[in-house]
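Exercise 7 asks you to align residues with tokens for two separate proteins.
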Amino acid sequence: MNTTVFKPLGEKQFLILQGAADLSGDYSLKKFQQLRYLRYSVAAVWGKRPHDRMQWGLGLSRTYRAGQANIFPVVMFNWTALNRKWGTEILLPARAHLRRTFSAKNLLLAGYELEGQSYRIHELSDAERSLEIRRGELRARLEYQRQLSGFIWIALQAGYRFNWSFNADYLPDDGKDFSRGFSGNQPYAMLNAPGNALYFNVSLNVVRP
């Protein structure tokens, strides 16, 4: 589950708040994960809008995009050229795209996105510790978006997945997590090195006008 709140602060400034909660693991409806294993991500960005073709902002994010819990500074830069055909959609370090707009109903994005999550392995956990795989990957990609009808859009995505992390941690079974940051030396429970791979994705999205 995730949500985004956009709060104008006058005509030129704004605040963006984002929150997400993930419950990932090898569970079923009969063996549902307990809510104490929810993993939370939050972000706050303060920004300025010099004109209707540019937004920039600075903020802070606690995220699982690199697999484990990390706190990153956030830089946002959204820009559209005078001809309205070219632009950028950038939220560093999470993602950055160059945008080519063909019409109001179809566009092409080229760039990357950093994705990830913490995935609990119930079958290998016990009463004292929880085993969680920290999946993180960098996806270089092209994405074509087209309006099908009204609020319904289709997105066709293809690219290459670079493995960032697929290691595992043992956490206390009370559900509490920790962050290594950039200098933490906590030992891993398991080290993995999967290869990189091509990928593709097709999705239908509800997009407000």
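Second protein for Exercise 7:
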Amino acid sequence: MAEYIPRELLPAPESLVTDGKFNFGTFSSQFRKVNPLDADRPLGFWLPKPLLGTRLKEWQAFQLGNNRWFMLAVLYNAKVSALTQFIIYDKERKKKYTFEKMLPSWQIKVPGSIWDASQSYRDKECYVEIISRLAGGRFYINIKVHDQKNLPDMEAHFEAFHDEGTVEPIVVSIPFAKNSGMYSHKCLMLMQGTLSLGDEKIEFLRRESFAIIDDHKGFYPYVMKYDWATAAGFDSRGQLTGFNLTDNQSLDPEKYNENCLWVNGKLNLLPPVKFTRSEGAAGDWLIRDNYGMVDLIFKPVSMGTINMNFLVLRVDYKGPFGYCNGFIKDRSGNKVDINQYFGMGEQKYIRG
């Protein structure tokens, strides 16, 4: 088996797009300006920015949890539609609480920067807010959901710690075409906060709780498809450990991917991976690479689905929560055991 030589980790330029050209690569820090709409003909032909923006898919998502609870908070704008979600999974009771609302695209506005910005959605039934203060090393997630059929009232307030020097994010710009692609900022962080679930009050302590950010913008192809999995937990020494693994439409996955392992805040770059599901999305997901660096089994325990098929839009989405087991090798070639780490996966197909 060939030895894996990690791709270069670069310092981030000032902007995602410079003089009309995407800066592709894997970066160690955040762009000051995330400006995909400044790209020259990213779809292969000229469009005014308002129309170009209708092809840019954008979202901010956080996975959050501790040894018992796992949560997903999302504000998502696919331009053909938008979505807000707050999902809670209680591993002890094996019970899932799902709030989601499909929205017109104009009701979700994803900010162009995470240095100092916020976004939110509010109506009479819910409030979902994400405050990004990367300059100060903080993210805040505030959620309130009430008066929902078959759901207890839910309220959450979380603070995630992106302090410089204690965590290392992975920031990527991945080509899907000559001058078009996706940007993402992901980072595994410690987190603290509170959750109210009906009459139950749950405290999340910083020493035992985590958050993973996914700030994301992309000119995906008309047919968008990818496989993805992430999970986190604390090892036997109390170190926060987690991973992000994706198989997407990158033109050159060896050079451009977003695969990584975090151990105690430190980033380890990983090679391309493939997902195998011999029993479908509800069965085991095998996640492996060609270098012996990644060997995982993701076992879904709770499935989320979205299925739509209209004339111009088709969505076939599977988003299970579940447990990961196996190993990933770090930058020194040492095996890092992934033992019953809880997380989520996606098998996504969108035409539109």
